[in-house]
Specification:
about 90 residues; alpha+beta; 5-stranded antiparallel beta sheet; globular
Length: about 90
């Protein structure tokens, strides 16, 4: 059974920069916070992508992971990642 993943827009204040955020909910529970990389300080290849600012439960990420591992091209890509993490949890991988 797949979880219902929804996104809720929310402004995020990060050093006066990237203000477009999304709360990621799995069946109504917060599993992640994403921030769109719009500021000029970001590498052009990541501009407009979504960065995982915080993950909870099965969506936690290792502080040792590469920054690029936590960047998603689109919200659809982020949703697939969340679904995969939730499957791992249900299969005992979390």
């Amino acid at each position: 059974m797949t979880a219902s993943i929804t996104f809720q827009p929310i402004p995020i204040l990060i050093d006066g920069q990237d203000a477009h955020g999304q709360l990621v909910l799995s069946d109504g529970q917060l599993v992640a916070v994403l921030c769109r990389l719009d500021a000029e300080v970001h590498d052009a290849k990541f501009k407009g992508s979504w960065h995982l600012e915080a993950g909870f439960g099965p969506c936690c990420f290792s502080p040792h992971s590469r920054c690029a591992d936590n960047v998603f091209e689109s919200l659809a890509t982020a949703e697939v990642w969340v679904q995969d993490r939730l499957k791992d949890k249900h299969q005992g991988g979390w």
